[in-house]
Amino acid sequence: MTKLPPTTSRALEASEDPGSNPTSNPSIGVLIAARMSRRGFGLGVLSAAAAAATPDDWMARAADLAGAVPRFDFEEAQADSDQTHHVSPGYDAQVLIRWGDPVLSGAPEFTPASPSAEAQMKQFGYNNDFIGYVALDGRSDHGLLVVNHEYTIEELMFPGIGRREKAARFAACTPHQVATEMAAHGGSVIEVKRRDGTWQVVADSRYARRITGETEMSISGPARGHAKMQTSADPSGTRVLGMLNNCAGATTPWGTWLTCEENVNGYFWNEAAAAAHPDAAALKRYGVPAEWYMWAKFHDRFDLAKEPNEPNRFGWVVEIDPRDPDSIPVKRTALGRFKHEGAANIVNKDGRFVVYQGDDERFDYVYKFVTAARVDLKHPEANRDILDAGTLYVARFNEDGSGRWLPLVHGKGPSFAANGFHDQGDVVIYARQASDLLGATKMDRPEDVEANPRTNSVFVMLTNNSKRKDTQVDAANPRADNRFGHIIEIKPDGGDHASETFTWDILVKCGDPTIAEVGATFNPLTTKDGWFANPDNCAVDALGRLWIATDGNSAKKTGRTDGLWAIETEGERRGTSRLFYRVPVGAELCGPCFTPDLETVFVAVQHPGDSDDDEPASTFDNPITRWPDFKDGVPPRPSVVAITRSGGGKIGA
Ligand code: FEO
Ligand code: CA
Ligand code: CA
Ligand code: CA
Q: Ligand 1 atom closest to Cα of 247?
């Protein structure tokens, strides 16, 4: 059998390969030993935070909090793998909107056999990822859904393409295909209403919006106007067309949508130009160019020989006002440039706004941003530019359970200036290299990082890192060849999310707990259906309970598709997980998003039918599932699903 070329999704996974983080930041053990030898041994010389971080103290604190977060109560779904989705008994899973369904007025019918860029610009995009709910009039049955469309998969979107090598794909690609792919990227704003228990998309809504790979956006913050942001189309370095590879995100208390650019390296071309580039090392650190999409064939800005600075204009957090379809999205550069997973956030007890972020690459970092100003909850418009001023930090996890947020501030810390950083613009554009200089901890692919306002805990999803070697393990990344991922819980010192110090512990090491060598640490109360691998997105619901969406399970790897699991975080049931919903074969689950009344959870079923197996190769013409339509000629369609309790009531309570 001939080995087929890799799928787009496989390319995305492979892009997290090592090589872009060349630093040898010392392992935590080395750092601790060095510190101990400088200061002498003994508890008396440890910081209060470190001294409080013994496992016994941790458990005592967890016991204190027990009761603050109620337990889950639902009948578990069954872990398995088949062509459709399944939800816990007593719940309904309704497909709300699919790739190709109308978003804007006058959108044509979905005609998969004859794809059209003009139609796609008015229709729901491909590969829905993050979902945010913005209530209208404070309601839980009427609001806006903001949805990211992360990336496209040509062999599942277009008839007759199949799986081909890069050169053949480049030769065959048409302007029409590229235009359709660009239109299928970005995001959608839809208005949704629940009537008689059923959710509907409001037709001809005045809020409806499609954002694509070509929507005009502005650039704000320290990199605005920077020399490294200037191009021939934008000599001012203040305007950019489109947002790309928008993975997870968040909504803010002032009603905006934060949407995060992740694997943007895949859109850029020209190895020779990259090698000759004045910032060749920086391009390499960011994996540019990866040449997965053929857009450079028709758009000069994706060719490094023609536009050497264009990659610097991607990899940001974008803020969008979903209530105003004419508003111009803003790339908020103060939050740093890297492969952003999400931007979950919390209003700190002193009123400052704190955004937690993961850089999803093997051996990359966990970040947070703390605004300089306090959030004005009474006047939403007063927070319009609050994300432009503040401090970006990167995390160091110490071996003893303590940790420190290291400020990425030009003029502070290790001489950024001596290492080629001329200003704060350089620091945010090349946040990865700035973090390398600070000695941040190299993590196992940080995905979502989400705070729990009830307990002030912060949960970090570390999805996997099969490249970590025995010699590279540390306390925060304790498994070599970490194929199943783990979850870290951070406790900011004093419950203060602006604090530069914290303690941390591992909530769970994932994978099959019945296989000793996997080393999973789920609570023994977890059933055969309840364990999971590869945590990716997460959500803390209104009761303070933690839900985990996964990316990377399959029949072959874990005997189950991806899905949504609930995991207890407090008291003696801490680490007990159970399955609530699972996706069709080939999909990952993204964007769990609860309405404020906890009666609905919206989930994004991304890339159903996507498989890197060669036999059979899953393609538009011969997919391994046709979920959710199951009609001949209709390929699998990424879709948003609304899950409610049959007859009404709170989810899982
Ligand atoms: Fe787009 Fe890190 O998942
Ligand atoms: Ca994804
Ligand atoms: Ca993700
Ligand atoms: Ca992922």
A: 1
* Homologous superfamily of domain range 8-262+315-645: TolB, C-terminal domain (2.120.10.30)
Distance CA 135, CA 152 (A): 29
What pLDDT sits at residue 5? 79
Percent of the chain past pLDDT 70, that is, above it, reads 92
**Whether this model's pTM surpasses 0.85:** yes
Nearest-atom number in ligand 1 for the CA of 12 is 1
Q: Where are the domains of the chain?
A: 8-262+315-645
Is there a contact between 266 and 12 (Cβ–Cβ < 8 Å)?
yes
Q: Residues with beta carbon inside 6 Å of ligand 1?
A: 150, 247, 262, 341, 360, 447, 536
What are the tokens at 610? Answer: 């996507």
pLDDT digits over 474-486, tens only?
999 999 999 999 9
List of E strands, 215-307: 216-220, 239-241, 246-251, 257-261
Instruction: Note the pLDDT of residue 52.
Output: 32
Distance CA 435, CA 361 (A): 14
Q: What is the rounded CA–CA span in Å between residue 220 and residue 331?
A: 6
The β-bridge partners of 283 are none
- Write the DSSP assignment of 97-166 as a string of letters: EETTSB-STTPPPP-TTS--HHHHTTB--SSEEEEEEEESTT-SSEEEEEEEE----HHHHSTT--S--H
Q: Say how many Å lie between the CA of residue 362 and the centre of ligand 2.
A: 15
Give the model's confidence band at 15: pLDDT under 50 very low, under 70 low, under 90 confident, else very high: low
pLDDT tens string 413-456? 788 999 999 999 999 999 999 999 999 999 999 999 999 999 99
DSSP state of 500: S
